[in-house]
């Protein structure tokens, strides 16, 4: 296993939406609509985009009447470009977000429209880079499965690790790097720098060993900005006592977040916990 580089267990590192776009592009052309410039209050940031096919839209530039008009123009351009191969395959349109669009944001933006067909797949792929933020999830139990279903649609590279080799469902591997590691804590040393770590294995013994390895790596490299452990305050009190006996200081133990999840969400269902944990990670994303 080599998490830092491509391995034979690595699945496609695109989100469901990105992979779906590439799959559809093999069958029919699309118009890529991207927010090119903005002024004032607008629904999406520069760089946000959607793929418009003749019969489907993937992604969003903010919804509302603006998006409806952009989709209509994109489909009109698709027809024009298909009929006139010599025409320029790019177009820029400016929109003011006022009463005429039924939106009161008050800002303005420019949308860039561009044609892509099957032979342009590599060029389009280059415009969909892997997310720079990495989340390493240790544990493929009920909460792990629920959390992966959320994380794979968010701006994260997800590395999913478990000591059991047959626990990763195929339908959840799109956009997720699944890694079998036995012992599970061995994977910690190979995580990409600046990974955010979530620990929720099937075993408290495994959880403890992963936490210990994260603390050792943090001591040596200082490159794991967030390490979260699922469990109660009682669990963390027990872990803290054991980790102190292994030589970790209170200052080092303070780097571990336990329990995990945004405060105020008290449900115990896996999906509820997953939402709370995903929200906690999103709070840590740099402001765009």
From TrEMBL:
<dbReference type="Pfam" id="PF13478">
    <property type="entry name" value="XdhC_C"/>
</dbReference>
<dbReference type="InterPro" id="IPR003777">
    <property type="entry name" value="XdhC_CoxI"/>
</dbReference>
<protein>
    <recommendedName>
        <fullName>Xanthine dehydrogenase accessory protein XdhC</fullName>
    </recommendedName>
</protein>
<feature type="domain" description="XdhC Rossmann">
    <location>
        <begin position="136"/>
        <end position="281"/>
    </location>
</feature>
<dbReference type="InterPro" id="IPR027051">
    <property type="entry name" value="XdhC_Rossmann_dom"/>
</dbReference>
<dbReference type="InterPro" id="IPR014308">
    <property type="entry name" value="Xanthine_DH_XdhC"/>
</dbReference>
<dbReference type="Pfam" id="PF02625">
    <property type="entry name" value="XdhC_CoxI"/>
</dbReference>
<dbReference type="InterPro" id="IPR052698">
    <property type="entry name" value="MoCofactor_Util/Proc"/>
</dbReference>
<feature type="domain" description="XdhC- CoxI">
    <location>
        <begin position="26"/>
        <end position="78"/>
    </location>
</feature>
<dbReference type="InterPro" id="IPR036291">
    <property type="entry name" value="NAD(P)-bd_dom_sf"/>
</dbReference>
């Amino acid at each position: 296993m080599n998490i830092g580089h491509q391995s034979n267990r690595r699945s496609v590192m695109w989100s469901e939406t990105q992979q779906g776009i590439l799959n559809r592009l093999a069958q029919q052309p699309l118009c890529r609509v991207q927010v090119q410039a903005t002024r004032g209050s607008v629904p999406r940031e520069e760089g946000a985009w959607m793929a418009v096919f003749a019969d489907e839209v993937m992604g969003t530039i903010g919804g509302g009447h603006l998006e409806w008009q952009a989709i209509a123009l994109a489909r009109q351009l698709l027809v024009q470009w298909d009929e006139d191969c010599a025409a320029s395959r790019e177009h820029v349109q400016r929109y003011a977000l006022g009463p005429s669009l039924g939106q009161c944001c008050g800002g303005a933006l420019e949308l860039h429209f561009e044609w892509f067909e099957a032979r342009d797949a590599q060029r389009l792929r280059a415009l969909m880079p892997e997310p720079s933020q990495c989340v390493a999830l240790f544990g493929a139990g009920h909460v792990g499965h629920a959390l992966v279903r959320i994380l794979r649609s968010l701006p994260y590279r997800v590395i999913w690790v478990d000591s059991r080799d047959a626990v990763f469902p195929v339908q959840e591997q799109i956009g997720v790097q699944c890694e079998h590691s036995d012992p599970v804590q061995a994977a910690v040393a190979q995580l990409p720098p600046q990974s955010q770590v979530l620990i929720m294995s099937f075993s408290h013994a495994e959880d403890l060993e992963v936490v210990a390895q994260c603390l050792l790596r943090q001591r040596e490299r200082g490159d794991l900005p967030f390490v979260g452990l699922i469990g109660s305050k009682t669990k963390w009190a027990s872990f803290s006592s054991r980790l102190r006996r292994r030589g970790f200081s209170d200052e080092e133990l303070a780097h571990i977040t336990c329990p995990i999840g945004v405060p105020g969400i008290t449900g115990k269902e896996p999906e509820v916990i997953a939402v709370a944990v995903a929200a906690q990670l999103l709070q840590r994303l740099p402001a765009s």
